[in-house]
Structure to design on (167 residues):
């Protein structure tokens, strides 16, 4: 009992294609509630990601740095199975606007159908990140707009480098 009380783990799953300041904001909020946060990067098979899985993990590592309370991992199967394996208490997901709600609601209910113990904690980002998404970031980068305050500097650099290579 003591052990579980002291070590509440949350899994933060997502595509992170790429990690944005909105994701970072959520991770920081997660750390205020949980003892450890596992960032679980999904291969995202049906979204044809811009960055490869390795590149996405590498960017997160560069942004997060060394933090004993944060683990970065790749999720290879069902989320409910992963949560059990990691002995996590809940999943963290973000709610930016009402538009996120429907999808998140469906996802959470599907996960709970597979595992009645499934719990999700929905966190609201700071107001200045509510309009941020990885897809919008990629659009802005494609047309050469500034990504200052939206993504960490290393992410902006890698985005521009990869965009130029693909031209
Ligand atoms: P997915 O493909 O699983 O939606 P994302 O990387 O796009 O992966 O998002 C992972 C989670 O982070 C989702 O719950 C999403 O709502 C949340 N999220 C993404 N961007 C933001 C943001 N700017 N503010 C708050 N939450 C966010």
């Amino acid at each position: 009992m003591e052990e579980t009380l002291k070590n509440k783990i949350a899994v933060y799953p997502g595509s992170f294609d790429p990690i944005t300041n909105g994701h970072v904001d959520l991770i920081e909020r997660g750390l205020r509630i949980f003892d450890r946060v596992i960032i679980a990067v999904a291969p995202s098979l049906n979204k044809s990601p811009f960055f490869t899985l390795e590149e996405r993990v590498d960017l997160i590592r560069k942004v997060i740095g060394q933090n004993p309370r944060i683990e970065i991992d790749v999720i290879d199967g069902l989320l409910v199975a992963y949560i059990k394996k990691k002995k996590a208490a809940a999943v963290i997901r973000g709610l930016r606007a009402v538009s996120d709600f429907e999808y998140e609601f469906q996802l959470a209910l599907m996960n709970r159908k597979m595992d009645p113990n499934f719990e999700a904690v929905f966190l609201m980002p700071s107001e200045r990140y509510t309009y941020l998404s990885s897809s919008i970031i990629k659009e802005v980068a494609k047309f050469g707009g500034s990504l200052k305050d939206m993504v960490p500097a290393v992410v902006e650099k890698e985005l521009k480098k990869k965009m130029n290579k693909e031209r």
Summary: The mean pLDDT is 93.
